[in-house]
Amino acid sequence: MGKGSRRRKRKRRKETALARRDGGGLALVPAAGAVVQVDLRMEQLELARGYDGLLRGAPEPTLIVAVFGATAEHVRLAGRFLYRFERPGGFPCKVSPREPSRESCMVVLGPGARVVLLVLALEEDSGRGLQAAYAALERAEAIVVWGSEHGSPLPMHLSELDPTVLLPHLGHRVHVLVDGHDLGQHTPGDDWVDAGVVHGLPVAGSKRYRLHLCSPDGRNDWTAELLVGMRKG
Description:
single chain, mainly beta, Immunoglobulin-like, eight-stranded antiparallel beta sheet
């Protein structure tokens, strides 16, 4: 066996070990890169609290989930999905998506690439703010986030997510800037609630994530349950 072949085998073993530590599964992206299919199923939305303004009835919770492929140099949008939910009748409660949820997209990944999920939560009124947030996700390279749980912000592009700050394969509440502007301040006609992010090396299998989303005033306090599966495309 030649030296080149031994080096390639060692590299593959190292990548597999890293993926197991990072996500608890088998690596899907070898040294040459791969196409990965990401499957999503929005299972339910838990609402501890909900608010749509004085004398305006029950809120209309809405989520946008965007899937990105990210390397250290680049980030690309692979798919974005809109979820509207049944109107809650009281709080606390659990509501299901209005339409059955089984979405998927293909992500082209190079060596060391990560899959990033960005979740935006809005209380829909006119729909204009929802449209603006949905459109902003196309500008993947211009998106910057930082953890809401951290006292001092550490802004990061989606290609720069630090696994020591935002632990992989966990849901994190984040602030979002697009082109230097606070996305939450640019959703006219709808009420911004919150945003969350999940990131990690693509590993085979499915994992259920709970993403806590809470408005700055605490009047809308939601938790999304999202099942994410990954497999070779």
